[in-house]
Amino acid sequence: MKNKLPLLIGAIIVIAGLVFFMGGGDKTAKKSGDSSAPIVIPTHNWSSQIVMAYVIGGIFESMGNNVSYVNADSQAVYESIRIGDVTISHEVWESAFGKSFTTALDKGGLLDWGDHEARTLEDMGYPNWVVDKGLCPGLPDWTALKNPDCAKNFVTPDSGGKGRMLEGPQTWHGDLIPQRVDALGLGDLWMVKFAGSADALWAELVAAEKEGRGTIIFNWTPNFTDGAGFTFIDFPPYTAGCRPEDGGDGKCGSPDGYLKKAVHEDFPKTHPGAAAAFKKMSFTTSHIGAMAALVDVDKMTHEDAAKKWLADNESVWKPFTK
Ligand code: TMO
User: Whose CA is nearest to atom 3 of ligand 1?
Assistant: First the structure.
């Protein structure tokens, strides 16, 4: 008995260790040797981006990873990723953020992690009833905006007698639209107001229809408004370098744009499994429109919308993790 005790204790330790390892291994299910440090996912101020943050966080968690969310400025985030404070970006919209993305890419520290299947457009447009009611004949051709009889139907109490266009928050793409309005010679007839939030854009659509006045707002696709009777204005086509920030005269609309993903350069080393899954992730126009609609039409919270989207779309996202 005396000399068997150490053996017995040894056996117990080995068995306990095995049980712990197997149980623990089951629960965390980390396939890939990923670090347990959290993957930092940014949230911005439009619905699909926030829902997709929780969708992707949920996918990473399903693989045994830890995630954390940080509310971040949608331009400054690329520098934050470059220096490693934020791990990923999952919605790099070309028109709004292409320049900040490229600047960080060129400096080093940020990697281009590929495109979603969805293509994007971010521009000014109008609900179709604006044209159906005859408020601006000739739209969607932008030259219809040169007609004073059009502009007068878009006047609001705060627009100084000019037609009003409601732009998104200025943090998205600065003075792009006011510059364009001036460059195209529309400044005498039109003024641009910045909305405080995406919700203010959607509220404007409801208010204008109720008041029977015309409305032109900033909007984008993919969004919940896809297929819901919204038309983007046809401005002169975008060409590389046409914007003032790129040395151009600004007389151009927005590009048929990419929707990219980006990561901090260490992510594939610290979290090889999650990084491989994120590289495969590609959402379509209808996936992204649905993520936005769960919040903006169905009025769910972003977190609940993400849970529902994940539950309804396992066949879409599970393959990304394999
Ligand atoms: C970046 N956004 C989708 C609001 O145009």
Answer: 220
Question: 121 pLDDT exceeds 80?
Answer: yes
Rounded Cα distance between 51 and 290, Å, is 10
74 CA to centre of ligand 1 in angstroms: 9
Give yes or no for residue 238 CB within 6 A of ligand 1: no
Res 33: pLDDT: 86
pTM equals 0.90
Bridge partners (DSSP) listed for residue 70: 42
Q: Is the fold of 36-119+258-321 the same as that of 121-246?
A: yes
Q: pLDDT at position 31, please? A: 57
283 lines ligand 1 (CB under 6 A): no
Specify the pLDDT at position 1: 42
Q: Where are the domains of the chain?
A: 36-119+258-321, 121-246
Ligand 1: residue whose CA is nearest its atom 4:
46
What is the reported pLDDT for 8? 52
User: Burial of 34 by CB count in 10 Å (0-12 exposed, 13-18 middle, 19+ buried)?
Assistant: buried
Mean pLDDT in residue range 128-155? 98
Class of domain 121-246: alpha beta
CATH number, domain 36-119+258-321: 3.40.190.10
Residues in the chain: 322
Beta strand pairing status for 110-115 and 259-264? antiparallel
